[in-house]
Amino acid sequence: MSVDLLLVVDAQPDFMPGGALPVPEGHLVVPIINRLLPRFSHAVATQDWHPADHTSFASQHPGREPFQTIDLHYGEQVLWPDHCVQGTPGADLHPELEAHHFQMVLRKGLRKSIDSYSAFFENDRTTTTGLHGYLQSHNIRSIAICGLARGYCTDFSAEDAARLGYEVLLVEDACRGITEEATLAGTKRLLDAGVRFVRSSEF
Question: Is 153 a catalytic residue?
Fold first, then answer.
């Protein structure tokens, strides 16, 4: 199978067991991603990179608890435990990830007042991250997506990539989800968007 680029989403310690916002079995994606990386001529990683007072953190909203939702200027926002704070070990790329394969690492969630699930757009769905322009400049037309977490950052990235006209494949066994409910909802959205679901063994 020939695909132009591998997009590795948020493979960071804070999303692994023992981290601030752990995804069940999140660490298991790392060896699969490492096997995939040499098979692609282009690879990009995303990195959640939040200021300590980010508005998506429950700690910034007195009386609120993690995983509650609030309405912000761009719509509904899940409140998260503090995670991937700029400059902390939990925000680094996972130390076992073979990061020398990446031509670019895109940091997202930088702005205090808006969250950013997708690698392409912030959560207002209009403010761009610059990734689309980068991929266009490198004549990328097809993207395989993996990483963390299903239902949120991997799925929003895949959905936006399809909306922008890319051929998009989601590598199922190289992803993990926060909850089964979020994963199932994400799967429906991605199938509706024309995203193909594949296994790492197909590359």
Answer: yes
Does the annotation mark 82 as catalytic?
no
Question: CA 68, CA 72: separation in Å to the nearest integer?
Answer: 13
* pLDDT tens sequence across 9-30: 999 999 999 999 999 999 999 9
Phi, psi of 174 (to 5 degrees): -105, 20
pTM over 0.90: yes
From the list 14, 82, 84, 153, the catalytic residue is 153
At residue 188, the 3 state secondary structure works out as helix
CA distance 132 to 165: 10
Burial class (CB in 10 A: 0-12, 13-18, 19+), 143: buried
Q: What is the pairing mode between strands 69-72 and 75-78?
A: antiparallel
Catalytic pick from 108, 115, 146, 155? 108
Cβ atoms < 10 Å from Cβ of 42: 18
Q: What are phi and psi of 50, to 5 degrees?
A: -95, 140
The DSSP string of 31-46 is HHHHHHGGG-SEEEEE
- C-beta of residue 117 within 8 angstroms of C-beta of residue 156: yes
Residue 188 falls in the annotated catalytic set: no
Catalytic residue among 10, 14, 48, 115: 10
Residue 50 pairs in a beta bridge with 85
